[in-house]
Design a protein that fits this description.
Strand order of the largest sheet: 10-11-9-12-13
Number of domains: 2
Distance between the termini: 49 Å
Radius of gyration: 22 Å
CATH architecture of the largest domain: 3-Layer(aba) Sandwich
Number of helices: 15
Order of helices and strands: EEEEEHEEEEHEHEHEHHHHHHHEHHHH
Helix content: 25-40%
CATH class of the largest domain: Alpha Beta
Shape: globular
Largest sheet: 5 strands, parallel
Strand content: 15-25%
């Protein structure tokens, strides 16, 4: 899906959407504070869209005006969603609440820290989390969203594909890294829960790419070291791809490329180009770093949530040689990054 909101003059908002089906006439749903939601079908021909063959008729443009929604000009909160996917393509800037900055947070975690993400979201008009769920074209338009001056995006897309575009669109770019054993422990525990319940929707919402591991996680014996060793030693190629070195893959990999030692060097180089890099064990310092760069404490008083079951499994996984092999490059990357962060904070002596 492609989209763009080109102007918001208060009393009228103009934009366009091209759905995945090029024969379909798109519709948008508009919500505004204190007003009844309205659904609007595109009725304007976008000649450039038609000429580039992106839609069969070019009828993809729409206008939201006082004619459709009396009171639009005075509404503080206005949100526009593509009707079929329910993707929010526009939120009106609230100058008293939103900062006029663009911020991207790379985080390989499949389960986001809700309190932290929610706090950051409050400071931005346009915000999209776990953007790796979307296809290439949708992510492209989330990043190349020209009109909104206040954008927060987060997730685990590949830096090699999107780093240059983010820099070109003047995003502040940050990464928050995590102990690889801890991340794997959380993935396996939540996959286990999802596999044993009817919550398959979790996979689409947070766990993109982990579908090959669902059956494995359902029967995993977390308390049995021998069983863990056997399970991780006998992973299929698809399962190894889904679980192996997710942090290095995010920061240096390309699509389904096999991650090798050389990617650790590339990942470190890419981290060095970012505005802020933090580790979870130094989250307070990372939050302050981001606040200093953005000029606003976007994280607020939110703290990382941890669970005893994850801590216990983290310890168990760290003692399984097959898991160490699976996470070899992430472990090396995290070790180098941890040393650099703590040296930068004055907690270690540089070599």
């Amino acid at each position: 899906m492609r989209f763009d909101v080109v102007s918001d003059e208060g009393h009228i908002i103009r934009g366009w959407v091209t759905p995945d089906n090029p024969m379909q006439i798109p519709r948008v749903i508009v919500h505004a504070s204190g007003l009844e939601a309205v659904e609007i079908q595109a009725s304007i021909v976008q000649q450039d869209i038609l000429e580039h063959g992106l839609h069969s008729t070019g009828v993809v443009g729409f206008e939201v005006s006082e004619n459709f929604m009396p009171g639009l000009a005075e509404a503080e909160i206005v949100e526009i969603f593509e009707a079929e996917t329910k993707l929010c393509i526009y939120r009106r800037l609230v100058k008293s609440k939103n900062i006029q900055k663009k911020f991207f947070l790379f985080d390989a975690a499949v389960m986001p820290q809700r309190s932290i993400i929610n706090n950051i979201n409050k400071h931005f008009a346009t915000r999209h989390n776990a953007i790796e769920r979307h296809g290439y074209e949708t992510i492209f338009y989330l990043v190349h969203n020209y009109f909104p001056p206040s954008i927060f995006l987060t997730g685990r897309p590949q830096f090699s594909r999107w780093g240059g575009a983010l820099r070109g669109r003047e995003f502040t770019i940050a990464a928050l890294l995590r102990n690889p054993f801890e991340e794997l422990a959380e993935r396996m525990l939540f996959l286990n829960l999802a596999a044993k319940s009817s919550a398959a929707g979790l996979l689409g919402s947070f766990m993109t790419g982990l579908e090959p591991v669902l059956d494995l996680a359902r029967d995993l014996k977390f308390e049995d070291k021998r069983a863990l060793q056997a399970t991780f030693r006998n992973l299929t190629p698809d399962q190894r791809l889904a679980l192996g070195n997710p942090m290095t893959r995010m920061l240096a990999g390309n699509l389904d490329e096999r991650i090798e030692r050389r990617h650790v060097t590339t990942a470190l180089d890419n981290l060095s180009q970012m505005d802020a890099v933090g580790i979870r064990t130094r989250f307070v310092e990372f939050s302050q770093m981001v606040a200093d760069i953005l000029g606003t404490n976007v994280v607020g008083n939110a703290e990382l949530e941890t669970f005893q079951t994850i801590d216990t499994l983290t310890d168990q996984l760290s003692r399984v040689s097959a898991v160490v092999d699976l996470l070899e490059h992430d472990l090396a990357l995290y070790s180098f990054a941890e040393e650099a962060v703590e040296t930068g904070l004055g907690l270690r002596q540089s070599a």
